[in-house]
Amino acid sequence: MTADDxxxxxxxxxxxxxxxxxxxxxxxxxESGEAQAAMLATVIPAGAKVLDFGCGDGRVAIPMxxxxxxxTAVDASQKMLDRLTEELPHDIVTVQADADxxxxxxxxxxxxxxxxxxxxxxxxxxxxxxxxxxxxxxxKLGGILVLDWPVSETPTEADSWIGVTTWSTEQQANACxxxxxxxxxxxxxxxxxxxxxxxxx
Length: 201
Fold this sequence. Notes:
This protein is α/β, with parallel strands linked by helices.
């Protein structure tokens, strides 16, 4: 599937199908976002300017704002951003854009940190690398990126909008060198990287 196919599928999906905890309760769904924001806060400096790419309805973006981060919430789906706005008790900048649209919004500005959760896993290898490259470009040198970008001993490429793409350690290492990402040790369930200058053509 192309990136546009994935975006359209998520945009049309029933909200209860997007996250399993929605089938448990709304309370469980929002509490999961609070827990993930608390984990992100262990690697992202306090008060940082952060970009949530694929923010959805704000499950993580809203609690990040509660923690006093300056949040820019980006999603290609206006439906998702409308749901976020309905919940919005805090000052969050919302931007309707795919990865290619981020630069147009930021201009010359760069973010202290960028995170994307449950987004990259649903894209092809090619589209995933393209998205990560755009997120790295949006991050200042030395800034932090938190990417839900799983490694597997048997890497596979998602073949549907709800499928999961996994990578080999070698694939990921080569991508990091080419894009300009330095892995950072952490206890998070996602990859944490520092933005550096690319070391490979």
